[in-house]
Amino acid sequence: MRKNNPTSRKAALAGLVVLITTLACGVTNPFSTPTEAPVVEPTVVVQVPEVVSQPVQMVSEDQVLVDLYDRVNPSVVNITIYGSMDDQVVALLQGSGFIYDSLGNIITNAHVVHGATEIEVTFSDGLVRAATLVGEDLNSDLAVVRANLPEGAIPLPLGEMSDLAVGQTVVAIGNPFGLQGTLTRGIISALGRTIPALTIFSIPQAIQTDAAINPGNSGGPLLNLDGEVIGVNAQIETDGTNISNVGVGFAIPVSIVRRVVPELVANGEYIWPYLGISGGDVIPLLVEAMNLPVERGAYVGTVLTNTPASRAGLRGASGTVTLDGRTIDTGGDVITAIDGTPVLSFDDLLIYLSLNAAPDQTVTLTILRDGETRDVPVTLTARPSS
After folding, report:
1. Which of 12, 53, 138, 313 is deepest in the core (most CB within 10 A)?
2. CATH of domain 73-146
3. pLDDT, tens digit, 9 for 90 and up, residues 321-348
4. Among 373, 357, 381, residue whose Cα is nearest residue 304
5. How far is CA 280 from each of CA 317, 329, 382, rounded to the nearest angstrom?
6. Can 111 be counted among the known catalytic residues?
7. What is the mean pLDDT of the chain?
8. What's the CATH architecture for 273-382?
9. pTM of the predicted structure, to 2 decimals
10. How far apart are CA 330 and CA 349, in angstroms?
11. Is 66 in a helix, a strand, or coil?
């Protein structure tokens, strides 16, 4: 048998590769049958118009604030209240407010107009008109006064709490120290603060901001950059030596405004629901002292007598335990839910009652007592005046 020559095979294969490669490159195969050359159509050149890019028009934050002020300021007013002093009527206090509706209703703080003999509002163009008190609510520190609106003065839209976030840019417009039409800029520093009212009760969901708020800003709007009212400027934190802004201001939240103001306009007052307890948050020492199976909740420290809570059988603290040098009140109920909504803190209970409940309404409290969970129905009443 003849043995193949490896050298000859390699040469043949290499030649085959060259042939195939040549065909692939479009050179005529010398072993193929000649054919007519194809007719080549002339190339059509399409002229594509040149695209010239346009610069993107950016609106600076400065311009946003300028436009917002021009749009909103005509709806913000200066409020001056007058009262009796030494048998004369004199100006006692100045604050701010903003137009709520086309009927001339103007929102401000209750502490601005409470006890006023006469009320005047000054519009952005300097026009001064008399105003009357429509209603006030000391529990939310909100009030409504009414005046005839000049042309061009329009209501400000209300925003939504669900759209707010810490770090969001906000603007306050008002009359600090009587300096009318002042705009200050800042951010939302915190949400969900609880601040004192003009009564023994508290205002939940308050907005903390570092936008400069000073005496005279009270009652003015806190706005988002769309010009929507997200709060009513009301309080500032001070160092105890002066009343000027130190970067910590508080606004009554728009959620409370939406609930209270329509009632003030319609009825002159707002009736809050009342449970009749005081207390605080569940803390680790309380968990240890009472051997609680939960780490969060609203602890009932005191149940006031002759209240919805006492009639429903809620229990307040009944003893004390000393742990790590601290005295802990023990024995009270722990509220973990209201109407099925989880309660993780005492503020959660306040918020639910403030925004979802009314006098004569029955709510169901889920409580922990002696290691057991139980549901307790409570019929709420109206808050007492004192």
Report:
1. 138
2. 2.40.10.10
3. 999 899 999 999 999 999 999 999 999 9
4. 381
5. 12, 11, 22
6. yes
7. 87
8. Roll (2.30)
9. 0.81
10. 20
11. helix
CA–CA dist 354, 197 (Å, integer)? 13
Tell me if residue 232 falls in helix, strand or coil: strand
Neighbours of 358 (CB within 10 A): 12
Neighbours of 15 (CB within 10 A): 10
* Catalytic entry in 141, 210, 333, 347: 141
Topology match between the domains 73-146 and 161-267: yes
Gap between the Cα atoms of 74 and 71, Å rounded: 7
Class of domain 161-267: mainly beta
pLDDT at 57: 54
Domain ranges of the chain: 73-146, 161-267, 273-382
In this structure, the number of other CB atoms found within 10 A of the CB of residue 145 comes to 28
* Residue 378, beta-bridge partner list: 363
Name, in order, each residue with C-beta under 8 angstroms of 182's C-beta and a sequence gap of 6 or more.
Answer: 173, 174, 175, 176, 217
Q: Per the residue annotation, which of 75, 96, 124, 218 is the catalytic one? A: 218
Residues ≥6 apart with Cβ < 8 Å to 279:
298, 299, 300, 301, 302, 316, 332, 346
Tokens 């306040």, residue located: 350
Active site residue 141: yes
Q: Which of 210, 253, 203 is nearest to 230 (CA)?
A: 253
**Active site residue: 75, 96, 111, 329, which one?**
111
Which bin fits 216, alpha (ψ -120 to 50), beta or left (φ > 0)?
left
Average pLDDT, integer, range 229-247? 83
Among candidate residues 214, 98, 233, 225, the one with its CA nearest the CA of residue 167: 225
